[in-house]
Amino acid sequence: MKAKEARELTIDELKEKEKDFREELFNLNFQLSTNQLPNTAKLNQTRKDIARIQTILAEKESVQ
C-alpha cells in the first residue's frame, strides 16, 4: 500500500487495514518458520506497510 492511498482512508479504515496487515504478518512468520514461504521479501514489505499505516494514523489522530 502506498502512502498516498493510505492518506485517503479514514481512521477506522486505517485501523482495519493495520489489523489485516498484522494478520498477514503472523501468517507469513508462520510460513517462514515451517519453511513454506517462497518469497521472504513479503515479510519486510508487510512490516513497512504496518509502519506506514501507524505513521499516518498518528498524523491523523494528532490533527483531531
Strand content: under 5%
Q: N-to-C SSE series?
A: HHH
Backbone shape: elongated
Kindly give the count of domains: 1
Major beta sheet, specifics?
none
Radius of gyration from the alpha-carbon trace, in angstroms: 13 Å
Quantity of strands, as a count: 0
What proportion of the residues is helical, as a percent range?
over 70%
Rounded to the nearest angstrom, the distance between the terminal CA atoms is: 24 Å
Mean pLDDT: 95
Return the structural class. Answer: mainly alpha
Query: Per CATH, what is the topology?
Result: Helix Hairpins
Task: Specify the CATH architecture.
Answer: Orthogonal Bundle
Assigned CATH class? Mainly Alpha
Number of helices: 3
List unreliable stretches of 5+ residues.
none
Provide a brief overview of the structure.
The model has no long low-confidence stretch (mean pLDDT 95). This protein is 80% helix and 0% strand. The protein is mostly helical.
How does this structure look, described?
- The chain has helices spanning 3-7, 11-33, 41-63.
- Helix 2 runs antiparallel to helix 3.
- The model has no long low-confidence stretch (mean pLDDT 95).
- Helices cover 80% and strands 0% of the residues.
- It has three helices and no strands.
- It has a single domain, classed as Helix Hairpins (Orthogonal Bundle).
- 11% of the residues are buried.
- It is mainly alpha-helical and 64 residues long.
- The two termini are 24 Å apart.
Question: Which SSEs are present, and which pair or pack?
Answer:
Elements: H1 3-7, H2 11-33, H3 41-63
Helix pairs in contact: 2-3
